[in-house]
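User: I'm curious whether this sequence folds into something compact or stays loose and floppy. Could you predict its structure so I can see for myself?
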Amino acid sequence: MNKKYKFIAVDLQNDFASEKGLHYNPLRGSVDFLKKVLFPYFKENDIKINEIVSDYRQPRQGDTSDCCRAGEWGYESILPRDIVSSTWIKAMNSPVWVRENIGNPDKQPGLPYPDSEAFHKWLRENIGEPGEVVPVVFGLTIDCCVLSTLQELSWRGYYPLVLREGVDHYEGGMENRDKILNSPVLNWAEAIKWSELISDE
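Assistant: Here's the prediction. I'll summarize afterward.
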């Protein structure tokens, strides 16, 4: 695989990706693909993943959901820890939004606020410079947090790819997923199949 790629996983936490999670949906096939195909391939080839996870404890403006609570099972990532190279924690759908005491289970979280510069710094340090690398994004869900991440990458000068088999719609189903991948995702990213990605030597 071409070394120009840098991988970003979004919200692959138990509350979204595992049975009994608060927002789990068995109609999403991407998690099975990630566990059986992608993660083993990355382990075998010593490829690292940069992950974005969420701290969705209350209070949060405009969103009453209370999930991915730091320190609890639902917050934990399903990524094997030996393939994770860095982690960014967000507090809203867009990765730009953070909060005081984010990810700290022992302290009360503050209200989410945007910190574009901090996210930009994390990208530069862990993904690389726009034009020098191609971010490949996967995770949950393509109609929400993955889409927000693709937008932020595009607006910062990256030309991201989204892994077709590695994402799902919140409601599940390939038809729902493909509708989002075909539009509006194409405004900010290009969808790519796993077979196309690994053949790019």
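Summary: The chain has one domain: 5-198. The mean pLDDT is 96.
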